[in-house]
Amino acid sequence: MSEATGTRRTAPVGDATGADRVRQVVVAVGAALAVAGAAVGSGAAGGQRIAEAADGALSADATVVAPGTTAFTVWSVIYAGLVLFAVVQALPGRAADPRLRAVGWWVLASMLLNALWIGVVQAGWLWASVAVIACLVVVLCVVLLRLVRLPASGVLDVVATEVTTGLYLGWVCVATLANVAAALAASEVGDLGLGPTGWGVALAAVAALVVIGVSFRAAVRPALAIAVGLAAGWGLAWIAVARTQGPLVDRTVAVAAGVAAVVAVVAPVVAALRARSR
């Protein structure tokens, strides 16, 4: 381990094995199918949009922590990153890359879980979708931890792994809060003591705290930490925008989400600078 960063150094790249070749092919094919299925299932390539599924439980005005519709354009960037990852890990010279060995199957699992989440939402099973997205968060956290332990071999590797994973995880963290809120609202469980505004503020604060925690854990990989903050900040900012217009206006939640968005963007930068100075 490196004493300065507490991370492992990349092991020398050895000869590729048959298992490496299998992983490359399966991840590449699985990624193509998962991204295509997600695009179709989400309405991006035709069909019912997620906002219209489950009786509109995940629409922009369903709960006080639902992001505005424009927020979901981040998926175009995430999907592009996932395709890039699939291509990079499939290159002949990358079969034995220790970093890609460590995260390849996990990234594929995240893509399949995302496609499963879309299918579950389209079926109207909101609580099942909460379970799926929770599993997705766990899988992406595993990817993050493995990337932290193994340094990248170049800029392309940083973009394909760290930037992609960071954006993916940051967005999914915000989406998880919105998903839970949607399931609770659809189940008509009531205000649970705090009321919509109280819960909106609390969930915005939780999102900011999660990003702070992730940022300091991933601080030795600035691209990874900052990407998490940017995606989370994007989602929180669009929650703020959504609460200032439309049928579900809530100025208090808008301010809380706006502050949380700023914290989400700034915290990774602070964490990265702190790690660099140590």
Your description of this structure?
With 278 residues, this protein is mainly α. The protein has one domain. Helices cover 69% and strands 0% of the residues. The protein contains eight helices and no strands. The longest helix is centred in the middle third of the chain and has 32 residues.
Q: What is the 3D form?
A: globular
Indicate the radius of gyration in whole angstroms. 19 Å
Arithmetic mean pLDDT: 89
Major β-sheet, in short? none
What is the β-strand count? 0
Summarize the structure.
The protein is mainly α and 278 residues long.
Topology at a glance:
Blueprint: H1 18-41, H2 74-90, H3 98-122, H4 126-149, H5 155-186, H6 195-217, H7 222-242, H8 251-277
What keywords describe this structure?
membrane; TspO/MBR-related_sf; 8 helices; transmembrane helix; mainly alpha; transmembrane; 278 residues
